[in-house]
Amino acid sequence: MAWTRAARAVHMMAVPGSGDQIKLFDNDSSSGFDMRLLDTSNVPAMERAQVLTEALPYIQRFRGKTVVIKYGGAAMKDPLLKQLVIDDLVFLACVGIKPIFLHGGGPEINSWLGKVGIEAKFLNGLRVTDSQTMDVVEMVLAGRVNKGLVALINKTGGRAVGLCGKDGMMIQARMKNKDLGFVGQVTKVDAELLNTLVAASYIPVVSSVGTDRDGNSYNINADTLAGDIAVALGAEKMVLLTDVPGLLTNYPDEDSLVSSLTVEECENYIRDGIIQGGMVPKMECCMTSVRNGVHAAHIIDGRKPHSLLLEIFTERGIGTMVTLS
User: Fold this and answer.
1) How far apart are CA 170 and CA 179, in angstroms?
2) CA 24/CA 20 separation, integer angstroms
3) How confident is the model at residue 130 (pLDDT cuts 50, 70, 90)?
4) Quick one: pLDDT at residue 4?
5) What does 256-289 look like in DSSP terms, one character per residue?
6) Which residue from 33, 139, 241, 257 has the fewest beta carbons nearer than 10 Å?
């Protein structure tokens, strides 16, 4: 079988022991990626060692740094991709990087709304969240999804703690728009609890639920919240896992991927209509983050196995990186 260098590299950098869970590499993933490319059983020992030494400068550079990762898209729905993302996450923690794992859960929310007989409603692409819907959102995000991820991380060898914005009044919010109901806009992120957990070598897993002083719950856009948390923590990086390769100047041609750009270049692309549609709020989130102290913001394709490792531990990366200059 022919192997790509990337396929060899990314799986050999996975967490020790996790490979046992995906030993048989049938191409049964809904991502469309040929999972058989992850089989490294025939890779020579010397090449394995070379991969690790090539990663060393990046491990040294980012050791002790905070990386906020927003988890979403296909990587949440495909069981194999989910495990590979968790492998990457635990790997980051094992080499001394401090990951904060933030998640939404739109598809599962819709599923549970259907189960309890509540119709999902949207206004200009945003979920309309009345009090009944918010009860389901909180149950799904802070309960089922959050604790499922915590269990998977712990099973993979990490030390995870599940949180939502109500814990320690960590994520304070207000109603964004009366027509949207309990959709929140962040007013403050109190980073004390997150810093305490990270200092004790835990991986915080945060659901995108906020609160106000009266104890009301709010559904918050997970991309925006990732940026707010990254700024509050003074993070080295913010990474958005999506279902697109990154910024494509000639969508959907993946050869037009922009590997890196500055805030000014990003503004020009938006003005010229090159960045449009759903990519606009993601890029605005990245720009806001780096303007407020985050060293770099990344948009990567969560459908590609080990995309986190490829983005952080290689020079070119796999997606799009936004920096201040």
Assistant:
1) 25
2) 9
3) very high
4) 41
5) GB--EEEHHHHHHHHHTTSS-TTHHHHHHHHHHH
6) 139
**Alpha-carbon Rg for the chain in angstroms:** 19
d(CA 184, CA 28): 38
Helices (H), the chain: 5-12, 45-62, 74-77, 79-94, 106-115, 131-138, 146-156, 192-199, 222-233, 263-271, 279-291, 307-312
Report residue 297: phi and psi, to 5°.
-120, 140
* 252 prior amide bond cis, ω within 30: yes
Q: Give the residue among 318, 252, 251, 238 at the shortest CA–CA distance from 283.
A: 238
What is d(CA 35, CA 11) in angstroms, rounded to the nearest whole number? 11
Structure letter (DSSP) for residue 19: G
Residue 279 is predicted with a pLDDT of 94
Residue 140 is encoded by which pair of tokens?
Answer: 């799904």
- Residues 146, 205 contacting (CB under 8 angstroms): yes
DSSP tally for the chain: helices H, then strands E: 12, 14
Q: Letter for the amino acid at 242? A: T
Digit-coded pLDDT (tens) for 61-80:
999 999 999 999 889 999 99
- CA–CA separation, 99 and 202 (whole Å): 9
pLDDT digits over 227-270, tens only? 999 999 999 999 999 999 999 999 999 999 999 999 999 999 99
Whole-number Cα distances in Å, 59 to 93, 212, 235: 11, 39, 16
- Statement: residue 107 has pLDDT above 90: no
Please state, rounded to an integer, the average pLDDT across all residues of the chain: 89
From residue 105, alpha-carbon distances to 67, 195, 247 in Å are 20, 24, 23
User: Which positions ≥6 away from 250 have C-beta within 8 Å?
Assistant: 256
Task: Give the mean model confidence (pLDDT) for residues 194-211.
Answer: 98
Contacts of 33 (CB under 8 A, 6+ apart): 303, 304, 305
Phi then psi for residue 32, to 5 deg, are 90, -10
